[in-house]
Amino acid sequence: MSPKYIKGSLLATLMLVALGWGWQTLHAPGRFALKDVRVLGNKFTDVGKLRKDLGLDQAVNLLTLSPQHLRARLLTYPWVREARVERIFPGMLVIELEEKTPLCMTKVGEHLYLVDRRGERIKPLEAGDPMPLPVVSVDYAPESEKPLLIRWLIDRMQRNEWLYNRLSEAVGLPGGRWVLYTRKGVKLLHSARMEEELGRLAILQERYSILNRSIRQIDLRVSGQVVVKPQT
């Protein structure tokens, strides 16, 4: 074995030892210790629970944290639609969340679920969740179509915030028909021409505050007409 070969092998061994020592040193708990976790954009996500679930409530080296892995974990949280995770050396972790916004509820079996603007279920309703929100039912439709129908109604209600803020329940029926109930118990009957009918209802509300009166039902299904039934 030549001296040149021995010298090369020794040098390679020393380099491996140095690299191993360097890796262990950099990843030691005392190095780049995580000192500050900042969570941005959270309205519904519990930061304390998040820190505990992700192991950020204990001594940890910032180098050992994978932003990609943490993001994947965060996307399993019911409220989180998107997440961005950034390490800022020597000791800060920044988590930026884009959360889902509940706009209504829907019933599945015996349970109520919060629903976002896409018509998709967020999570089962629990104590402490946002309330009150209108309950939207489209029981007649196949499961695959329900989010589209709920999203369609949410879009119309958001364009008519004056009614959305009064809405207690909405029931979808075949043929594009809807029955809406206000929090004061007024029943609104709509055909598939809901947008036109909401325009007529908005005029009546602006001129006569019709939804504030002692009315049991307003039927808007006949074009150009409004049939009102008072409380008995």
Automatic annotation (TrEMBL):
The keyword Manganese does not apply. Its main location: membrane. Keywords: Cell cycle, Cell division, Cell inner membrane, Cell membrane, Membrane, Transmembrane, Transmembrane helix. It is found in: Membrane. It comes from the Bacteria. One of its GO terms (cellular component) is membrane. InterPro entries: Cell_div_FtsQ/DivIB_C, FtsQ, POTRA, POTRA_FtsQ_type. One of its GO terms (biological process) is cell septum assembly. Residues 32-100 form the POTRA domain. PANTHER family: CELL DIVISION PROTEIN FTSQ. This is Polypeptide-transport-associated domain protein, FtsQ-type.
